[in-house]
Amino acid sequence: MGSGNGNGPEESLERHPFPFPLPIPQLGFMSLVNYQTREITCKIVYYGPGRSGKTTNLHYIYGQVPHDRKGRMVSLATQTDRTLFFDFLPLDLGTISGFTTRFQLYTVPGQVYYQATRKLVLQGADGVVFVADSQARQLQENIESFQDLHQNLSEQSVDPRAIPLVIQYNKQDLPKDLILTPAELSDAINFRAVPDYSGDALHGPGVFETLRGISELVLKRLSSPSSAR
Amino acid sequence: MQVDARHRFENYVTGSANRLAVAAAHAVAEQPGLTYNPLFIYSGSGLGKTHLLGAIGNLVLQRQPQAAVEYVTLDDFVEQLHAAIASNEGERFKQRYGRVDVLLLDDMQFLTGRRETQTELLRLLNALQGTGRQVVMTSDRPPSEIKDVDERLITRLAGGLIVDIGAPDYETRIAIMRAKCEERGVQFQTGVVDELAKLEFGNVRELQGALNKLIATQTLGGEQVRPEQIRAMLGLEAASVKAPAPRRTSRVMGRPNLDFQSFVSDIATAVAQHVDPWKIKVAEAVAYWSGEGYRTSKLERALAEAGRKTDFETILREYFAAIERLRELEEQASSVDPALGANEVFRDPERVADAEALTTRAFSGGTPPPGPSAAFARDQFEVGPSNQLAVRAADAVIQDPGKKYNPLFIYGPSGVGKTHLANAIGNEIIDQSGGAAVVACVSAQEFMDELIAAMQEGNVDRWRARYRSADALVIDDVQFVAGKERTQEELFHVFNTLYGEGKQLVFASDRTPRQLDGLEERLRSRFEGGLVVEVQAPDHILREKLYAHYLNDVETPERAALIAYLADRPAASVREVIGIVNRLVAAADIAGMPLLLTVAKTELENGAPTPHAPDARAADRYFLDDEKIVWHLPDLGARLIEDPK
């Protein structure tokens, strides 16, 4: 429990296969803030091993957002030259300090064999949420997925130490004998000491805290000189 | 209304429950309009909203004594609005609030159901924020929970920062009471204040009431209050201590303690912290003024120069001043001619000088007459034997307007370039004068339509003055005036005025003046008084040049042969040449090959005109939109999926 069924077909999600190649690669380089059009657009990618609860995070957020603030949550699939499959949730936060602020939340498929899709979705991300599965027997998957994340970022010439990243230890609602504590998980995974949160994505605790954590890291880049992109 | 001078930050006790609110209020008071705008403070009653509001006002006034700070409760605001409307002074009401630098609005919860007030408030907030003025509001609940309020207003209210003030904690209560005792010069026995603070009061006002009671007892009764008496004095039995008022945070206990609304307000704080405040201010100004229909390119340029700290205050001040000036000018100009109000010049703060010139002209005879079309440039005009006489005459006119051939009368069949040449003369005259010359350039049809419109509106004088003040007059298709008596009469007068002042006149027609039936003798003789020159159908040399010109941008491997072939074919006009080129390009497109001689031959010798090919480039643009995401996806049902590899 705790993770939905990961990346398999979801009844409650709409699916939109594509008849043409998705131009995702070109899309990644839009800047975070556009002073001309007064828009802030944050692309946040939920990363993690299969069935760790990335989609569940999005579902919870989707359920909490007032109707006029959320777009349709979609899952995308296509069978052309490239295969894609991911969840996407656009959030409209309204006008903040004069900026139309939009968040775009994506999940990657966690299963190892969806490597190509993960790379595509990761392109142009402004921030990454790593959703770890707190179950003790999943520890190795967490570690592998975290390494996979670093590798994919490096391949895209993104410095994994520079991109905003937070970690969520999900499924903390499970019986204590099945899971590791946040402290243990932190020791195992969070060697870079990024902000981390314990979560129960199915019921909500930690979901918005995580999202707020990553958002604040991303937005911090607005004022740091390195973000002059 | 005046801000209460007693409400200051110095006597506002800060604790954990109100720290954020105080910090935000302080930031706002130090830089009104720059940090959190609007700032929305909510809390239960008696927790210090009004005090904080007053503190903002007082600090602003202390730092900038001439700032206009207005404190008003929503109730008063409504009352003033109603009074203003009743006495037909709605405009003055708007102006009064439109001038405020810092607007402090108390008790916003009373907005519920007041549509009129909401509309007025929305307009006011837009206007104030658009000009970088600060708005601070308080309410007993967050904006989203105020019922029956226009959605647009809610988003406006929530657009800045929303902070709440919780009930004071134990330490804060002690601090508040110590401050009060000091203020009153009262000394209690040790333990009294602590004992009182242990009672959970839902708000500061109740706490103060209890304290007042103790102070009264002690000062009037002349006896020191002892800690153990307190509960009894306040009518509280030890057992029946008033249940603590629910703390604001308790409402989310047991549930995830962050919801979407507070997430958004946290994000708002983060954005406000990390986006350069001045950029926000400029961006808000851009949003507002572009919404009002003004050009904001100047501000946008300032924004684009990211990184460098621009002197944005000066930029904004100049910008506002320019708009102010434009509005004045627009008002003046449209008092002379209502049609002028729509002129673009009044919407561009970078063209104040133009607007001034336009207004001046409006007073001295209305708008300038229509000018020549910039699309017709002299250097784009190809010359060959069939039109060289006309072109030479035109060049002479351009060199010395009004001196040599005045008027210049160009005639020839349709589509040979008369309009181009006539407009080009106009353009060149303007260029040579450095842009100062006013060249009236109209077709005879427009000239007549304008006259009729002016007659309808009863301002023929002004219309006439526009043309008479021109430095040159170009009239195309002058054959249309034939038979139109009134138009001919007006043209005659304009002609005489301009000719008398040595201004250049150019006419284009499809016939010679003599061939124009229904043209009055007095005009005919005047038209013939300068130079009447013909433009003929393009000859071979000109056709070669024309094809070379129009095929310039077209890919063709056999350019020379193609041009030679085409030039050999007769063409009655330049227009026909352009038509042929377009036809050939389309045919080659459809055939999917470069424009070859054979394609041209097939197309011209036996082909019917082909329909236009679909616009492939537009389709590309649609698919390669540079948004990060695709918002609308065609639904193909359940066709899927990624195959595991």
Structure description:
The complex is a heterodimer of chains A (229) and B (645). Chain A is 27% helix and 27% strand. With 229 residues, chain A is α/β, with parallel strands linked by helices. In chain A, strands 1, 2, 3, 4, 5, 6, 7, 8 and 9 form a 9-stranded mixed β-sheet that branches. In chain A, a hairpin with a 4-residue loop joins strand 2 and strand 3 (39-47). Chain B has helices at residues 19-30, 49-63, 74-86, 90-98, 115-130, 151-157, 170-184, 192-198, 204-221, 230-233, 260-274, 277-291, 297-304, 312-336, 352-363, 388-399, 418-432, 444-457, 460-468, 485-500, 521-527, 540-550, 559-568, 574-591, 597-605, 616-623; strands at 39-43, 69-73, 102-106, 134-139, 161-165, 408-411, 439-443, 472-476, 504-509, 531-534. In chain B, helix 5 (115-130) links the parallel strand 3 (102-106) and strand 4. Chain B contains 26 helices and 10 strands. The interface between A and B is large, with 69 and 60 residues.
Q: Keywords for this structure?
A:
heterodimer, A: 229 residues, alpha/beta, nine-stranded mixed sheet, disordered N terminus, disordered C terminus, B: 645 residues, five-stranded parallel sheet, 26 helices
Which geometry of chain A do the CA atoms define?
A: globular
**Largest contact between protein chains?**
A-B, 69 and 60 residues
How many H/I helices of chain A?
Answer: 6
* Percentage of residues in strands of chain B: 5-15%
Task: Please identify the structural class of chain A as seen in this structure.
Answer: alpha/beta
Determine the strand fraction of chain A and express it as a percent band: 25-35%
What helical percentage do the residues of chain A reach? 25-40%
Largest sheet of chain A: 9 strands, mixed
Strand elements of chain A, count = 9
Would you report the number of β strands of chain B? 10
Mean pLDDT of chain B: 78
